[in-house]
Amino acid sequence: MLCVPSHPSCLEIPLRYRRTTAGVFSALLAVTLAATAQPAQAQQAEPNQVQGLTVVQGDGYATLAWTPVDGATDYQIERTAVAEDGSATGASVIVGVWRPNRQINNSAPTFADAGFAPGNRFQWRVRARLGSTAQPYSAPVSDATRGHWGDPDTPGRSLRTQWENTLGAQYTNDVNEYAYTAAIDELSDRVRVVEIGRTVQDRPINMFVIGYPTPPATPEAVAATNPLAVNCNVHGNEPGDREACLIMARQLAFTDDPATLGLLSRTTMLIVPTINGDGRAANSRGNSTGQDLNRDYSLIRQPETQAFVEMVRDYRPIASYDGHEYGNANTGDLPMLPPRHQNVAQGIFDRSQDMIEGHMYTQGARDGWWACPYGCTGANVGLSEETILRNTLGLKNVVNSLLELRSSGGPTRPDEGNTANNRRRKTYSALWTFHQFLAYHGASVGDITAARAEAIRFQSANTGRIVFRGSRPIEAYPAPHPGDTPPPLDAPGEHQILEQPPCAYKLTEEQYHGARTDGPSGRQTTVAQRLAAHGWKVVKVAGGYLVPLSQPERGLVPLLLDEQAAEGLVAGERVAPTLTGTRNGPLTVTGVACLAGATVRGPVRVQPGATLIVNGGSINGPVDASGAAGFVLTAGTVNGPVNVTGTTGPVLLVGNRISGPVNVVNNSGVAPLLAGNTVNGPLSCAGNAAAPVNLEVANAVGGPRFNQCAGL
Amino acid sequence: MTDTNAAAGRPAPRRILPITGAALAAVLLIGLGSTSGKDSGAADAVPAGVAVTGPLCDLLPAGSEPGNPASLADQPADQALQWIPVLTTFEAAVRATGLAEELTREVTILAPTDDAFAGKFSRTNLDELLLRDTDELRELLRDHLVTGALPVADLVAAGTVTTVAGTSLTVTGVGQGARLDDQAETVCADYRAAGARIHVINEVLGDLPTTAGQDDDGHPAH
């Protein structure tokens, strides 16, 4: 330790040891005096003094790293504002306490110091504590922190939010958000701002669509790039993530960073800064009707959630983050949680966990941010409600995570009594997370799309039990990162499980099209509109409407339509399979036939106006449907051709093995879905009212692909 | 979850170290990074100092920071409230109830912090007040207004004041601040706005029932 007269290290160390460890005082004093006498000499470590302190600047934070001290209980991080010449211009403050549960590896401790005003210059020192006994401070490091992102003299880059301009004293209000958003839209070719809906009070819900050199022109084209999405502000009184989103939009719009541009050249980032503009303006959690929107993503009673769900349907993000703030002072900086509902496909859960534990924990340990599992201290939160976006998106086969920003500094960030410090730390921690999210997406897009494809095949197969409520367990992360306490087990009870899934739900005309009272007056929507917003396939049949479970969002279907659902939309009639065993000979379908794991040794003919639903099993012989009301074939094996012509309702073929040609022709309903099939033969699609889609789940086709199916 | 500051009212002790620049220069000339200008805030026309008093003042914008007390002195009260970061709930309540007009008269505003609101009302209750029961909320706010722009010293000297809602408040001195009805204390007093004094207080006044902790408040969920 280089000791300078009047420097606190020269004063504090002897004083502390005089109080606590008189025996070593003289030796320490000798070292101190020697150093004082020869200030130019190389530093000499004192016992238990932190060595190797470095600082690296990020956007709105500074990562401190140091060599661990044997036996240290924790470390204290001290920050002092300094002038260019190094003289202190402010008080020295303990701004951080590093604890072993902060990161997955204790061999390379790091701490992301944040909360300071960007651009100011500081000096940092770190000291270990053994028990409660403070050890000598490290030699200081000093550096200028990064200013607000973007050259203030370059158009576009010079844009600033209200929050930035006021150094966090004010959040960016709605009017300033729109102006800032419009300016980015105007000045950057990479950004298109689309209005995905309106709030109850008619505020626009905007979305940044960001790609390089330009974003794809249509939602369908965006979907083809495997986009990622951030939902920034669902609770109006949790504005920290929203400010990060606004800053990130500017960075992505105007950065020259080759790595970022590389990522944006391969995908599209969707940023929804304010889904709940009314609640933000009112500083309320709910929207203007008081509805908590994060309890409405499945039911979509509100225009805000409907807009978001329709965006997911049309733009098809494969990964997402959902921004919140959390009032527990004793948890990590960044509580996160994957979709846990047990109806979520295993691969989506696993990949979400990989994003959180595999990536965020690792990168957090590198950059000094403390990510941890939400639930945090045993609180009864982070459960399986499908009404919560985290679970809704999982049930829509989107790899995703909740993100919480710890509201108060708590014991590990003791300098956050200052409101601006607190707000800045929260927002810049969110900004770090969203950049890491983009990086993870870029590095893992193959794994994410594979998980998504498998999930779509699995869900469409309609196999296995249905769980109405109940979570997958979140295991505690191995020490030294116990991750506080994971959320409760939340296993489903017996009454929340349906072992034998129905084939479909049947809704009456009144259930499907009848007026409803849930939702804001004047903006209420029917079940038909909501299922359409989810993008579900519905077959018009005699006496009502049939919603097959065998479709990509199968896990969510019963949660809205079953009589046993915890927060259902309507209690549909369960339609059981009509054939489960073996049938020798041809099958002619009139009315509705549902084959579940059935074996048909003979051809299948679907008569005009009839509906065929096949989940699994095998068919020997051609399958012909002409003028059917609906045609659903999933996870099946067909030896022979499949001809689907002139269907008036949905056509869905997912995850089948078909030996023979497949023809999808002249169907007049919504876009046929052909995804994840293996076709030994040609695939031909022509004359369909809406071109068939594959949800970016490719088909393996042995023969040529014709016309509307050329790209599938 | 709204912003809360567990440490509000308990500012970390700070002291300026007696360091001479020349002595430290040798130690601190490490890693001079890029320099970048700090964006200027809204505080341009700064009238001569406005002295605010109370333990919370240290946690609020000061000096030349955006939202510092002097920069608010000429602003309409409803605007000034938008610059005090611990008053987001009170400020939203003013807008929700259309009370800004009433704040253009000479008035004293006893403004509870966000922590005070969070300690008084459950989140559900608070949403109800902000979104639906705005008549009730307006009456509550009026119980935090006193006619005349009174410095905290004048409030203490008066001993008793009557709120615009008609409630009588007993005021006693506590240090440089005031205690109101043994219910609340000023935590940062004597903000000035155009025609107004704003005293930040640590509890909600009035007689609405306390609902904090009654619903999901214990573990606010995402």
TrEMBL record, chain A:
Keyword set includes Ribonucleoprotein: no
Record flagged with keyword Hydrolase: yes
Cofactor field: Zn(2+)
First and last residue of the signal peptide: 1-42
Keywords: Hydrolase, Metalloprotease, Protease, Signal, Zinc
Top-level taxonomic group: Bacteria
Entries under SUPFAM superfamilies matching the protein: Fibronectin type III (SSF49265), Zn-dependent exopeptidases (SSF53187)
Family to which this protein belongs: Belongs to the peptidase M14 family.
Name this protein carries in UniProt: Peptidase M14 domain-containing protein
TrEMBL record, chain B:
Organism: Micromonospora andamanensis
PROSITE patterns: FAS1 (PS50213)
The protein's name in its UniProt record: FAS1 domain-containing protein
Source domain of life: Bacteria
FAS1 domain ranges (all copies): 74-205
PANTHER family documented for this protein: FI19380P1, PERIOSTIN-RELATED
